[in-house]
Amino acid sequence: MSSHTIGEIAVWLLGAGVLGFVLGWLVRELQVRARRRRAPGPVMKAVPSPEPKPEPRPEREPEPDPEPEPEPEPEPGPKPRSRGVEPPSADHVIKGNTSSKIYHLPDSPAYARTKAGAWFRTEAEAEEAGFRKAGAPRRNAAKKAQASKAPTKKKPPEEPDGA
Questions:
Q1: Domain of 29?
Q2: Are the beta carbons of 4 and 13 closer than 8 angstroms?
Q3: What's the pTM value of the predicted model, to 2 decimals?
Q4: Which of 23, 47, 91, 156 is 20 to 30 Å from 7 at the Cα level?
Q5: Residue 77 — very low, low, confident or very high, per pLDDT cuts 50/70/90?
Q6: 3 state SS of 14
Q7: What is the pLDDT of residues 6-37, one digit of tens each?
Q8: Would you say residue 113 lies in a domain?
Q9: Which intervals carry biased composition (Basic and acidic residues) (predicted)?
Q10: Domain total for the chain?
Q11: What CA–CA distance (Å, rounded) separates 142 from 133?
Q12: C-beta separation of 80 from 125 below 8 A
């Protein structure tokens, strides 16, 4: 038979039962606390591991650039209304703003800040192209001013019928 008494065996069984109860309670308590911590805060997501960097490829030697074709020669005679920032020739000194149809002479205060959409040699060329001189009244405004200055006839005051 065994060398342990019934009392000793009972104590061991009672200790094992208590230990099982305590471990069960502890596991349950830890699960409840973990849920409480997760509920109000954001859900933890797994952080992806960084991808390994690809091995660098050996560099190729750059291919030589093909020689550019020579640019064609510009036409000999510049046009009076050529577009661009630079004048087509030294003779073209009058700047024309194509959106407002106003031209500026070199002595104009706005000459430096005007973006030239057209260049002219003379004021006559600019006016032939439909531009007006900077500071000159608009054509419609001039007509309105002349119409307002025209004498108007006043009506004589009406006499009341007092019969």
A1: 8-36
A2: no
A3: 0.36
A4: 23
A5: very low
A6: helix
A7: 999 999 999 999 999 999 999 999 999 888 88
A8: yes
A9: 52-63
A10: 2
A11: 14
A12: yes
C-alpha torsion angle, residues 91, 95, 98, 103 (rounded to 10): -110
Q: Is residue 110 part of a domain?
A: yes
Q: Nearest 5 degrees, angle CA 107-CA 120-CA 136?
A: 55
81: DSSP letter: T
Whether 102 is covered by a domain: the verdict is yes
User: What are the residues whose beta carbons fall under 8 Å from the beta carbon of 88, sequence distance 6 or more?
Assistant: 78, 79, 82, 119
Top mean-pLDDT range of 75-84, 96-105, 139-148: 96-105
Q: How confident is the model at residue 122 (pLDDT cuts 50, 70, 90)?
A: very high
**Tokens at residue 33, please?**
């606390």
Q: Is residue 149 part of a domain?
A: no
Distances (CA, A) of 41 to 33, 46, 47, 152: 13, 15, 17, 84
